[in-house]
Design a protein that fits this description.
- The chain contains 2 helices and 2 strands; from the N terminus they run αββα.
- Helix 1 runs antiparallel to helix 2.
- By secondary structure, it is α+β, with helices and mostly antiparallel strands.
- The two termini are about 15 Å apart.
- About 75% of the residues lie in helices and about 15% in strands.
- A hairpin with a 2-residue loop joins strand 1 and strand 2.
- The protein has one domain.
- Keywords: Membrane, Transmembrane, Transmembrane helix.
């Protein structure tokens, strides 16, 4: 069950990153703060990598 949540989180982060390339604008809101689009993408990429690390750790636990 936990692995499914990790996969959903990674897909959500990837969709957000890809969507940010196709929408117009130099800034995006993130928790109520307007920030540069590249900082926004970097934050989502960081979230993706944290979730991926947790997923890999969880999958090694079952081997």
């Amino acid at each position: 069950m936990r692995k499914v949540l990790f996969i959903i989180g990674m897909v959500l982060a990837l969709i957000t990153i890809v969507n940010s390339f196709f929408t117009m604008g130099d800034t995006r809101p993130f928790f109520g703060f307007e920030m540069n689009i590249w900082v926004y993408r970097l934050i989502w990429l960081g979230l993706f990598s944290i979730i991926l690390k947790g997923y890999l750790k969880e999958s090694k636990k079952f081997k």
